[in-house]
Protein 1
Amino acid sequence: MRNISVIGSGTMGNGIAHVFAQNGFDVSLIDISEAALTKGLATIEKNIDRQVKKGILKELDKPFILKRITTYTRVNDGVKNADLVIEAATENKEVKKQIFQRLEEFAPESAILATNTSSISITEIASQSKRPEMIIGMHFMNPVPIMQLVEVIRGYNTSDETTGIIMSLCEKIEKVPVEVNDYPGFISNRILMPMINEAIYSLHEGVAGVREIDTVMKLGMAHPMGPLQLADFIGLDVCLSILKVLYEGFNLPKYAPCPLLVNMVNAGHLGVKSGSGFYIHNKENKDLVVSPSFV
Ligand SMILES: NC(=O)c1ccc[n+]([C@@H]2O[C@H](COP(=O)([O-])OP(=O)(O)OC[C@H]3O[C@@H](n4cnc5c(N)ncnc54)[C@H](O)[C@@H]3O)[C@@H](O)[C@H]2O)c1
């Protein structure tokens, strides 16, 4: 494997491109939006500077890493020499299905096709493909240059060979891969999202306040961040859509999204991205302030 194509230059895509380029791979970074590519490259540069400051990289490495990344606005051009394509575009089933249709046509037949989806079934994404045994989930965690885990998800038809190649590739980029099967939420979100949902139910039912719930989980369970603060970081809309996938996928009431979460999303209180969720988020205020709705 030499040439890695990454589709989507947003939060995850630029991080994935960064990590592969840092480990000596040639990367084609593809996004339909020129602005997203510019922003993605700027983020990579900023994150390399941070790694230099921390002594993880040398200043001298920076131009070499950046030189290994080429940007494209058309999937057709960006995947034609790919050994591996990692799709990290918007979390929308139709968008992903369309991208995979184009990959059928434009990626080399020998290329493994991976998706970084956090909740869509790998088996369903592969269902239209002529090479379902070469389609796999590579679920990187945010922020990609820092987080060690890659959840490697086997679709129903993913072959042992494809899985083996991807597991050892993850080790080459200094990540820790964990193999899981393709069921709703995989492992990470199947466990994380019900915990977040239960924290929201506890708030909704008046068992405790925002700060109290987060403090119990931080100091009592040694979580680096409480579940409500984490939900704000992930985005309450993202949490809701993953819970819906679990609820619909398993058809069990234990995954039913808390009505408070549904209300907050409908009201546009999405967490960090909208400036307020369970906490208020603004650049001036570094201290965590609980949102007025919960005081
Ligand atoms: N953000 C997270 O914490 C996180 C964590 C793990 C996995 N994921 C998954 O990673 C994927 C990307 O998430 P993100 O947070 O980086 O999203 P994002 O919104 O930050 O970026 C998505 C990018 O995809 C681009 N895009 C949309 N349609 C495209 C197309 N047809 N071709 C090329 N580019 C296209 C958009 O322009 C955008 O720049 C999603 O599947 C998400 O579920 C996200």
Note: The first strand starts at residue 3 and ends at 7.
Protein 2
Amino acid sequence: MKPLQSLHKMARNLKRFWLNLRVHVDDAITFARSSGLLQEHQPGVLAGHVLKTAHRVDKGLSLPDAQPGHGLQAAQLLSRQLQGHLRHSGADWVWQSGRAALARRARHEAGVPASELGVAMRAREVQEAASGAFPELVRVRRSVRQFAPGPVCIESLKRACELAALSPSACNRSGGRVWIATEVEQRRRVLALQDGHQGFGEQAAAVAVVTVDTSAFNTVAERHQAWVDGGLFAMTLLYALQHEGLGTCCLNWCVQPSTDRRFKRSVGIPLHETVVMLIAIGALPDEFTVAHSPRRPLDEVMHGLGSHT
Ligand SMILES: Cc1cc2nc3c(=O)[nH]c(=O)nc-3n(C[C@H](O)[C@H](O)[C@H](O)COP(=O)(O)O)c2cc1C
């Protein structure tokens, strides 16, 4: 390369790197302003806290060995959060969901078995619905935290991954990848740095790591594209696994960059792939319970855009 050309290339790369830095700082400011990171008393932030803690309480009741007394700290926290939420937003559906979770936990303390307090499911009914029409498949998909012993069929995993690969992706770059651990030792290593699988993750016969190959994104404007493409990919994978009659539970990958790098080195995932989430996969027990997970009413979800006049 001629000296002038290489100078030109260096200047271009410096400019691109500077832009990269600027938009990431901008992202950090936007996140600090719009999220609950620094704003603790906004109604939306309080509602998010209530829903998250209520889920912790209900999740405890859906674990294989749910014991009375479990989740005491979460319940105490939820009570305090509910008081704050009531003051700011009144007794809306979020408040009622939190109260219902507390009431279920209190009944568990009083001796009602957890299997009667969660949502009761039957494998046969779930699998029938999952092999039928799409709305049924969607309605019957739930995060499963109780698995039957035994391996999952590798052919089922392959069929599901093949369908996931049909997910749309920006400019068809098809970055979605799945790394699957089935051996006990591999599964342990994959789960070692994940913080949301306690009490059930070790029962899963397979753990998938959904990643996106970031190397195909080449402009700063695409810095979030891996999460979008990866989310779509993961959703198709979940439905496909459900269609195969398997139980799944998404496992968050909300970690610091240093943990992310340690994880990739430890399990052998290339550094240029973005880890989107992990998925616990296993066979459904004949009968099992899942956590209550109330959803927002349609009028909070769907909005018409006003006309510009
Ligand atoms: C990206 C993502 C990460 C999640 N991480 C965890 C996790 O670490 N542990 C867990 O038990 N559930 C996890 N979940 C499951 C959610 O708690 C669950 O989807 C939610 O409560 C709704 O319940 P449902 O899936 O049964 O409809 C996760 C879900 C998503 C989408």
Note: The CA atoms of residues 60 and 66 lie 6 Å apart.
